[in-house]
Amino acid sequence: MTTGSKRLQCLIPIVAAFSLAGCAGTHPMMPTPVLYTGPRPRPLFTDVHADARRPPLDLLFVTDRAPARSADQPEPYTADRSRSVAFGSTTILFGEGLTWDTLVTQSLAPRRATSLDLKLGPTQELGRFPSIPYEVTETAGGVTRTPTVIAAHERASQGLQAEVARRLALSPRKEVVLFVHGYHNTFEDAATTMGELCHFLGREFVCGIFSWPAGGSRGILAGYNVDYESSVFASEHLRKTIRTIAQTPGLERIHLLAHSRGTAVLVTALSDLNMEAYMQHSSLAQRYKIGNVVLMAPDIDADVAVAKMFKVRSDPDVPYGSAPDPRMVFERTPGFRVTVYVSPDDRALAASSWLFGSLARLGRLDTAMLTPGQIEDVRRLGDVDVIQVRGRTDLFGHSYFTSKPEVSADLIAMLRYGLRPNEPGRPLEEIERPFWRVPATVSTPTSERVLGQPPSGRTSGFDPVADAGAASAGARPSACPAGPLAAPPAAPRSRG
Fold first, then answer.
1. Are strands 206-211 and 57-67 parallel, antiparallel or unpaired?
2. pLDDT digit string (tens) for 372-428?
3. Apex CA 73: angle with CA 70 and CA 77, to 5°?
4. CA separation, residue 461 to residues 16, 17, 312, 363 (Å)
5. 133 preceded by cis ω (within 30°)?
6. The whole model's pTM is what?
7. Could you report how far apart the first and last alpha carbons of the chain are, in Å?
8. Three-state secondary-structure class, residue 5
């Protein structure tokens, strides 16, 4: 058998697994984070206004998905791309006919007797930016944007900022949490995942999603190649979205969360914004009021991530203001932090690494892959933490940020309470600073749902069913000894 034939044989169970993804289903609410349970639980809700004490939760959305063509389509936005970015409001419904008190009781239960399902409610588009490329007109010296398109852009920017400002006025905290989903997620998948996270953040923040055109089925591997290209397409729109929201009057801070392939969208957008800020004699955190940047199970090559995240720091010829300043001091901004959640048990990223041929996905980073000098380089950055997660509480070990109560508790302790690793209330095991591990405890497997993935069973992030071959043939094909099920070998210690 040729190498190509062997590789094709390895792909068959992955593609077969994706063919199971089309069934309808539900989105059971994530398990209760452990900081709200146990002998000394923190209160879940402390500052929810009386008028807001009702189960439905309203989210801000920004999307470059194409809108549905008719009301008969199951969701308001599709997996197709739109060259025009829309924004608006969407509602997350918790259960059927629940009272606020019942929802609170169920939200605090370590184990729920019955499933509490989430679904998408009414969605209203409030505004839309002009389509790209923006229209231009000829002048004597060249071309310029038309007055019409400039006016349309300004109306959309002001409309988005007005909506954010309206939400900030109603929110206990003048901070935005924006979530960027992963591969194969629909609009509803992204919204329900952010809805439950916002719920367990005490409903104190202005919560929103940036939903890019993922979740289609064209191309190979259930659309992974199309989603990959769409993630590149969407990074430009996310960059503009962050910049616009950051300029909203009254905003104190914006926290950016991304999962799986969505981390590549976010990292690219932040890389460009960092360059913009530097050339304006500022920094990413200061110019755009960024607090936490959280990359969860990042489906991005580790070398690509490093190149993008440290592009400015690694190019002393870039103008700092009006001229380059190779010896300028990169000041640390209080409250700014980059946190990366990784897991060597992430089967989805093992498959992604195998398919791309990359030595290591960032989401499977381990200290064993790094030299002591490289670990010291990460430590010297001063504002980066890497949190390792072991074991699986979902099918692929890829959606632990919601399926594993210890991990969701760590995320909440960081965002809601501003705790650093291993401070009281945020217990972590130190591996070698700034590398940490979530303490090994027994979590309840969420076998009924692969969380962070669509309720239909499709996963968020590149999630081929690693056991598909075993399920259909009794074992993994022998032609795939280092395929998706196998952990990739440790990278050479000299690799930078």
1. parallel
2. 888 888 888 888 999 999 988 888 888 999 999 999 999 999 999 999 999 999 999
3. 85
4. 17, 14, 28, 11
5. yes
6. 0.86
7. 35
8. helix
How far apart (Å, rounded) are the C-alpha atoms in residues 94 and 90? 13
Cα 359 to chain centroid distance, Å, stands at: 22
Instruction: Determine the longest span between alpha carbons in the chain, in angstroms.
Output: 74
Phi-psi region of 184 (alpha: psi -120 to 50; beta: other; left: phi over 0): left
Neighbour-count burial for 130-144, b at 16+ CB within 10 Å, e otherwise: beeeeeeeeeeeeee
CA distance 364 to 400: 13
The candidate with the shortest Cα–Cα distance to 28, out of 479, 471, 454, 472, is 454
**DSSP state, residue 81:** E
Cα dihedral sign for 87, 21, 388, 310?
negative
Cα–Cα dist 361/112, whole Å: 35
Helix (H) or strand (E) run with residue 83 in it: strand 77-94
Asked if 218 contacts 81 with a C-beta cutoff of 8 angstroms, the reply is no
Q: Which residues pair with 339 in a beta bridge?
A: 294, 385
Instruction: Give the tens place of pLDDT for each residue, 303-362.
Output: 889 899 989 989 999 999 889 999 989 888 888 999 999 999 898 888 887 777 766 789
